[in-house]
Amino acid sequence: MSYFKKNSFALCINCDCLLLCPKDTDNIYCGQCNTVVSKDDFNEDLKNKTQIAVSDNLSKLIRNNIHLSNNEQKGNILFSPPIKKIKKLNDNNLTNIINKYESENKIIKEELEFYKSVFKTHPNSLISQVKIKTLKGKKVWIDRIRDDKKYISLLDMDDEISEWLKPIKAER
Fold first, then answer.
1. In terms of domains, do 127 and 72 share one?
2. What is the torsion angle, in degrees rounded to the nearest 10, for the CA atoms of residue 16, residue 22, residue 24 and residue 29?
3. Enclosing domain of residue 65
4. What is the pTM assigned to this prediction?
5. Would you say 57 and 114 are in contact if contact means Cβ atoms under 8 Å apart?
6. For residue 89, is it within any domain?
7. How many CB atoms lie under 10 A from the CB of residue 83?
8. At 36, is the secondary structure helix, strand, or coil?
9. Phi, psi dihedrals of residue 3, rounded to the nearest 5°
10. Are strands 77-80 and 130-135 parallel, antiparallel or unpaired?
11. Spatial contact of 62 and 68, defined as CB atoms under 8 Å apart
12. Could you give phi then psi for residue 103, rounded to 5 degrees?
C-alpha cells in the first residue's frame, strides 16, 4: 500500500520545493535538487510545512491566474518541476523597458539612414574611397579624392584629415 492515497503535495526536504504527488506513489523525484523523497522521510513537522507552502503557493497562483501543467510520471517516481515564485512586473518597470527599446530603435534607425545616405551624397564615388568623418560633431561622408580641400578643412581634425591637407611632394 502506498503512502499517498490521493493526489497531494509534498515539500522537498533538501530545497523546500513544492512537489505534486500522484496517488499510489511511494517516492517523488525533486527536479530542483535531484533527490528522491520517500514516504519514510515525512514526519508531522514536514506535513505542517507542506500545508503552509501549498496554501501560500496556490493563493499566489490563483491571484496570478496561472494554471498547473501536466507532469510526467515514470513508474513510482514523479518527475515534477518545482513551483517557482513568479516575479510580477509593475507599470514602471514595463515603461522603463519600453522606453529603453524605443530609444535603441531610434538610434539604430538614424544610423541606418546615415548609411543609406552615402548613395545620395556620393553617387559617383567608390565605397572604398568614402570615409566617415565628423563635421561639428555630426557624422558625414567624405571622399578625399572628389571633395575639395576647403570642405575637408572644415571637418573636425584628426590625424587622417591632417595628412590629407598636407601638400603632396612632387617626384622627379
1. no
2. -40
3. 8-80
4. 0.44
5. no
6. no
7. 20
8. strand
9. -75, -45
10. unpaired
11. no
12. -70, -40
pLDDT of residue 13: 64
Residue 62 lies inside a defined structural domain of this protein:
yes
**Are 74 and 135 members of one domain?**
no
Per-residue pLDDT tens over the stretch 73-123: 444 344 455 555 555 566 777 888 899 999 999 999 999 999 999 999 999
Q: How long is the chain? A: 172
Query: Between the CA of residue 58 and those of 9, 54, 65, 67, 163, what are the distances in Å?
Result: 11, 6, 10, 10, 73
C-alpha 64/C-alpha 59 separation (Å) is 9
Task: Return the CA Rg of the chain.
Answer: 34
Give the per-residue SS3 of 55-116: HHHHHHHHHHCCCCCCCEEECCEEEECCCCCCCCCCHHHHHHHHHHHHHHHHHHHHHHHHHH
Residue 98 phi, psi (nearest 5)? -65, -45
